[in-house]
Amino acid sequence: MSLSLCLRISAATLGTLALAGCSSPDDFRPTGDTDTGGNSQNGATDESPGTSAATSGGPGASDTDAVTATAYETDGSGTTSGTAGQAETTDASGLAPCQCDPPVSCGAGFCHAACADEEEFPAECVCEAGVIDTPATYGCHACEPVVGGTHNIDLAVQSVNGRIFINESNDPPPIDLQSSAKLYLLDPGSGDTVVGGLTNELAFDTKAISGVYDVAYSIVNNSEDALPWNSRAAIERVAVTEFRDEPDVRDVYVSSTFLGGKFTLNVDGQAGVEPGDGGDDGNIYLRDRVTGDSVLLGSTHDKSYTGRRVLAGEYDVVFELESPGSLMPRNHVVVLPESAEVTAKDVTAELLDVEIPVVEISGTFLLNGGPAPGEVSDHGLVMLRDPVTQDVFELGRTSDGTYKLRVVPGVYDVLYTGLASTGEMPMNAGAVIGQIKVGAGELVNDINIAATKVSGAITIDGATPPELASDDGELWLEGSELGRVRLGNTSDLTYDASVIDGVYDVYYTQQTASELAPVNTHARLSADVTLPDGLGSIDISTTVVSGVFLLDGAEPALPGLEDARVYLKDELTGDSVLLGYLSEGDFSRRVVKGDYQVYYSLEAGGGLLPVNLNGRTGQSVSATEELFDDGHELDVRPVQLTGSLLFNGGPPPTDANDYGLYYLVHRDTGDEIYLGSSVDQQYSVNVLPGEYLIYYRHGYTAATKNESPRNSNALVGCVELMNP
After folding, report:
1. 81 assigned to some structural domain
2. Using one digit for the tens of pLDDT, what is the confidence trace for 233-249?
3. The domain that contains 323 carries what CATH number?
4. Fewer CB in a 10 Å sphere around the end CB: N or C, the chain?
């Protein structure tokens, strides 16, 4: 049975936010292969931004997730800026481009809008040949090589203002603060937002970096049901032009409909069952599964709901358990399995009845086909996981022998976590042991846990490990769907465990390594070991890596407050080995044999050393020699990057009440580096070579100021830094 309840609410007319030759959209897909909202008109991913908390390196800096992406082309003059290239090509649909007029900044591409002889569609950035568009933004992106020296960052900044209406009749929204919503611009891939204003202000006036955005909506207060209840919805795709003498002017129409209907249950095939009162109830939501935009329709204990304003869009209908009782399913969050299509118009009531199907399932817990142990000293927890919502809820404990509970029909993953073992029950954590299908005629499912007892000797380089708590490590099995299970310590000399059958990698983790035990934190010893056939004795093959640290090819001569850590890293497993501090000059560490990248982390200072906290140096170490692997020279070679910070080709304001902040973020590692503030108008920083995305984040704008763009996390460029 499909778990795909989708409600489509489409407005007959949505307000036109026309600018740059772009017309009213009905499709909110960004360019690129990643789905950031499908065809939904509620495609926002974040609420309107405020001033973010500071991170290391600069005042008022905002936290951001690491973005793996390429970034903007430059104009060839060492400056990140404007629209790069206007190549005559076609978009993914094969349509000839009708370039946005006035121009819109798309990085290494151009803005494609609707032409007079074409069907209307949203503005989009069409990428130049050979440029990979990035799902993290609506733009096209490429990195510019920079061999040391200077790189200016020039932002195309435009004023954006307009009026706000709640329908096509040009009715204004309520001016009462108790009925208000936020409006903002949004790049749904990166989460970049631009503060617009509140609906009760009737108009908005802001500054934004030129590009393609969604116009997003988020309810704040709604005491009289005068506005839609959506928490973060996209209502329009727009393109903000490059700087002109006049601002981009648009009117925003928040068109919606009223929904109402009944809540009922279908219990074991009996339709029309009335939900229980408080103590046995749940909440019903409309929700966009990609963006998380949601609207609460009501609680099942109310039996019905009326007059719920909702923006046009496509939604799942979702049940969330509030209080478990005799009728309600035990799912915490589940998409209901029926579908409906509703066409909405301004101030038109639409009927949407919601039925919650519930069935009772039961079964027996088995271990290798026989009854599972009944003692709490040897048992595990079995759970069901909804593959759509990732909701996990308890099915039962193996020591109970059987289970019985109510759920919504569908397909579920079966998960197992060992709680206690005397040797029979496996101690895997979060292992997927199967799948069950729940529906008519499929109500009894026995749960079998297939496990194998494994044992063997533990050796280091073929010899017996130290039996010392001060020189010790652990062995683990890890499977992509089987979780982790601990085998034992090296100081135990042997291991003995019960493990769920399947394919695992074998890992070593140091605990108190001091001499013979390697200092790795998560080293993979072997891959794709299949149980019940594999394993046996486990040997940890090591070598001693040694050498010297250099700074720009010479012995480090560091002032007292300057120092950094250098370590090895396996980028596939996350394993790391601390080699030592740069000021120590040399290093010697016992490690598990393998190939590593050399990483760097500033400990103190930053005037002389690169300021990276998680920096890849570009060097690698292949630690494969027997016994000793010496003679390594690990050279930290910083790049000094300087440049001007510009708005529309000129200096930004120097007012501390109106500024933005700039950051570098390494494409692969997410290492983040503060560059400076627009108030400074220039920057200078020592960093390690590599490809870095350039981000702008709004810092602060006083009520009387409006010069700096209000973007919360705009990707504005990319540089590939190289040593001379």
Report:
1. no
2. 888 888 887 777 667 77
3. 2.60.40
4. C
Q: Give me the domain span that covers residue 690.
A: 640-722
Does residue 4 sit within a domain?
no
Alpha-carbon 420 to chain mean position:
34
Give the angle subtended at the CA of 278 by the CAs of 276 and 279, to the nearest 5°: 90
Write down the pLDDT at residue 710: 93
Domain end position, chosen among 426, 449, 472: 449
State CA 256 to chain mean position distance.
30
Q: How far apart, in Å, are the Cα atoms of 522 and each of 426, 486, 511, 514, 666?
A: 22, 13, 11, 16, 23
Tell me: do 566 and 473 sit in the same domain.
no
Residue 251 CA: distances (Å) to CA of 213, 316, 712: 15, 29, 23
Q: What is the pLDDT of residues 293-348, one digit of tens each?
A: 999 999 999 999 998 888 877 888 999 999 998 999 999 999 997 655 545 544 45
By C-alpha distance, which of 230, 254, 249, 227 is closest to 238?
249
Cβ neighbour number for residue 16 with a 10 Å cutoff = 18
**Co-location of 294 and 275 in the same domain:** yes
Are residues 531 and 598 part of one domain? no
pLDDT tens track for 69-92: 222 223 334 555 443 333 344 444
The reported pLDDT for the residue numbered 54 is: 32
**365: exposed, middle or buried (Cβ count in 10 Å: 0-12, 13-18, 19+):** buried
- Residue 27 within a domain: no
pLDDT at 106 over 80: no
R_g (Cα) of the chain, nearest Å: 30
Estimate to the nearest angstrom the gap between the alpha carbon of 405 and the chain centroid.
Answer: 34
Q: Examine the fold and report which residue of 358, 379, 396 is the final residue of a domain before the chain moves on.
A: 358
Angle of CA points 33, 36, 41, to nearest 5°: 125
Kindly state the tokens that stand for 32.
């690129």
Sequence-ordered list of residues with C-beta below 8 angstroms from that of 94, at least 6 positions apart, any chain: none
Backbone φ, ψ for residue 304 (5° rounding): -160, 175
| Cβ 305 vs Cβ 317: under 8 Å | no
Q: How far is 272 from 262, CA to CA, in rounded Å?
A: 10
For residue 646, give Cα distances in angstroms to 149, 154, 219, 643: 17, 4, 35, 10
Segment 534-569, tens digit of pLDDT? 899 999 999 999 999 999 999 998 888 899 999 999
Same domain, 263 and 350: yes
Q: What CA–CA distance (Å, rounded) separates 103 from 97?
A: 13
Strands 256-267 and 252-253, bridge-based pairing = unpaired
- 434 has pLDDT over 80: yes
pTM, entire model: 0.82
- Angle (CA) 203-207-211 rounded to 5° is 110
82 in a structural domain: no
Strands of 639-647's sheet in order across? 79-80, 152-155, 639-647, 682-687
Grouping H, G, I as helix, E, B as strand and the rest as coil, residue 199 is helix
With left for phi above 0 and alpha for psi between -120 and 50, is residue 579 left, alpha or beta?
alpha
Lookup: tokens for 286: 């409309």
Do residue 686 and residue 718 come from a single domain?
yes
End-to-end, the C-alpha distance of the chain in Å comes to 62
Query: Which of 698, 700, 701, 696 lies closest to 718 in space, CA to CA?
Result: 696
Distances (CA, A) of 374 to 401, 430, 533: 7, 21, 28
- What HEC string does 680-703 produce? CCEEEEEECCEEEEEEEEEEEECC
| Same-domain check for residues 479 and 445 | no
Q: Of 136-140, 277-281, 352-356, 463-467, which range is least confident?
A: 136-140
Residues 648 and 715 in one domain: yes
Do the beta carbons of residue 156 and residue 243 sit within 8 Å?
yes
- For the chain, what's the residue count? 724
Q: How many domains in the chain?
A: 5
